User: What shape does this take?
Amino acid sequence: MDEMNTPTPTEKLKRSSGHGAPDRQLFFTFGERIIVLCGYLFVGASVLSFGMMGFVKFRSARDSVITYASWLDLVSREMPIITFLIIGVVTALLGQRLLTTAQMPYTRTIPKDDLPLVEDAVKQGKPEPIDQYVRIRSLSGWAGNFTKLGITGLPLTTVFLTLIFLPYLCYQSRQPTVFLT
Assistant: This one.
């Protein structure tokens, strides 16, 4: 009797909202719910860690100005801040990855907005535009975003090295004879 009420795959596809997951758009299995819950807990731990970092810095700001004798002195005095920063970044990345993973089954291969871009190439059987589309869609993360902008390899490295050495240059221009000794 239950089998008569079960919709066929074609009926499920007709009822689909176009986001790739018929009838399951907002419904998660138990395992997916656990993954989402863990993702939110990691993001919450990250927010808490950054909040604690701000609290510790605010509390220590009441003290007098501290001068550091060396890098070791700087690291040893700022260890709680560094620890909260590392915990915050790691838990935020883990939470973001878990929340993204929970939504993976619901993504479409070709979104409706991009279908006109690829439709003619598919109909004509041209592999090159399809390959280019797949390569661009598969780029993710910060390196993928820069690749979409056309900045790859050596230019990207040059930009990042410039940003890394710029604070050193600014620091050196203020105190030309001493560098954190």
User: Anything to note?
Assistant: The longest helix spans residues 30-60. Residues 59 and 122 are 62 Å apart (CA to CA).
